[in-house]
Specification:
Elements: E1 2-7, H1 12-23, E2 28-35, E3 43-46, E4 49-55, E5 66-69, H2 73-85, E6 89-92, H3 108-111, E7 123-125, H4 129-142, E8 147-156, H5 162-177, H6 209-222, E9 228-235, E10 242-250, H7 256-264, E11 269-271, H8 283-286, E12 292-299, E13 306-313, H9 317-335
Parallel strand pairs: 1-2, 1-5, 2-4, 5-6, 6-7, 8-9, 11-12
Antiparallel strand pairs: 3-4, 8-10, 10-13, 12-13
Length: 336
């Protein structure tokens, strides 16, 4: 039985972590819900109990075994070392520690053994939902043949920006449907009934940090530093559910039939690929699910060693909360 802390407990990912802990019956002795001053006094349900939200401070982690961080980079940078010094193992969902060479970047079903590297800083990083989703899909193929090149376009929902993103899309859709002009607060342009080829901040290369981050994170998770990956990230007017169009070139030819067989045998991957019955993964179908869904698998007719596929998953649940709880399960079964 473990004493847990959830930093950012009232946010979208924090609430999902609490839900997944209960659903997967993680052995919880006590749970400490931590947040900023504006959330103190709120209650969150866990196992038929109303747990009060406490203020995050320097003394929050005494006696904590595992601390889940689902807050900003600044919060993680400041408080992960505090929690680690108090004896906790931190599992962090922010970008703060992902590319730190002393911190393992872990997707439980892909490189779970890397979690053992937590001992250096007592921190484990979880990748972005885009990187996690893509890594799972690529792992199934890379177990059969080495990867040569990956081209991915991601279609990212507004919930990746938390409640602010959800509220902005909801408000804009309401205004537009009633013939009224909209105001942009979070995004640089209207997101309602629109697509923005802009996720993150632009860099001098013309890519955004979300795109370059995806490339580096996938290389680190798959432990292939020279893997050629290029990405385009698009914000779409969808509340929940992240989709990706993926082109994968491999060293050996992988037939469509073989690819389907590989995906069928991969943990946390579901195959939905029957165009005759118009079946393929969609955001509305993956919400609340713990797997990634793969479909539209087809040979790239311009390259005989490449496949095209479409991948979808719940960005808050499978893309974040489920993975960090799975990492905690690995810690409990192998390292604690």
């Amino acid at each position: 039985m473990y004493t847990l802390a959830v930093v950012g407990a009232t946010g979208a990912v924090g609430r999902q972590i609490i839900e997944v802990l209960e659903e997967r019956q993680f052995p919880v002795q006590a749970i400490r819900l931590l947040a900023s001053e504006r959330s103190v006094g709120e209650f969150v349900e866990f196992k038929d109990e109303s747990i009060p939200v406490q203020l995050l401070d320097q003394d929050s982690f005494a006696g904590v075994d595992i601390a889940f961080f689902c807050a900003t980079d600044l919060i993680s940078e400041k408080f992960c070392p505090v929690a680690a010094a108090a004896g906790a193992i931190c599992i962090d969902t922010s970008t703060a520690w992902r590319m730190d060479n002393a911190v393992p970047l872990v997707v439980a079903s892909v490189n779970g053994e890397a979690a053992s590297g937590y001992r250096t800083k007592r921190i484990i990083a979880s990748p972005s939902s885009s990187s996690l989703q893509l890594s799972l899909a690529l792992k199934a193929l890379s177990d059969f043949s080495a990867l040569e090149r990956v081209v991915v376009s991601t279609y990212q929902p507004v919930s990746e920006n938390g409640q602010q993103g959800v509220d902005e899309l909801r408000n804009q859709c309401g205004e537009l449907l009633n013939g009224r002009p909209v105001k942009n607060k979070l995004y640089p342009h209207q997101v309602g009934f629109n697509c923005l080829p802009h996720v993150g901040d632009f860099e001098s290369s013309g890519y955004t940090d979300a795109e370059t981050g995806l490339v580096r994170e996938v290389q680190k998770v798959l432990a292939v530093e020279n893997l050629r990956v290029t990405a385009t990230a698009v914000r779409v007017p969808v509340f929940y559910g992240l989709c990706q169009s993926v082109n994968v070139e491999t060293k050996e030819t992988i037939s469509v039939a073989k690819a389907r067989e590989l995906f069928d045998g991969m943990a946390d991957v579901e195959l939905v690929d029957n165009v005759n019955d118009v079946e393929y993964p969609m955001p509305i179908d993956v919400s609340g699910q713990d797997s990634i869904y793969v479909g539209r698998i087809r040979t790239d007719e311009s390259c005989d060693k490449a496949l095209n596929m479409w991948v979808a998953a719940d960005n808050l649940r499978q893309g974040s909360a489920t993975n960090v709880v799975q990492i905690a399960e690995l810690l409990g079964s192998k390292y604690l």
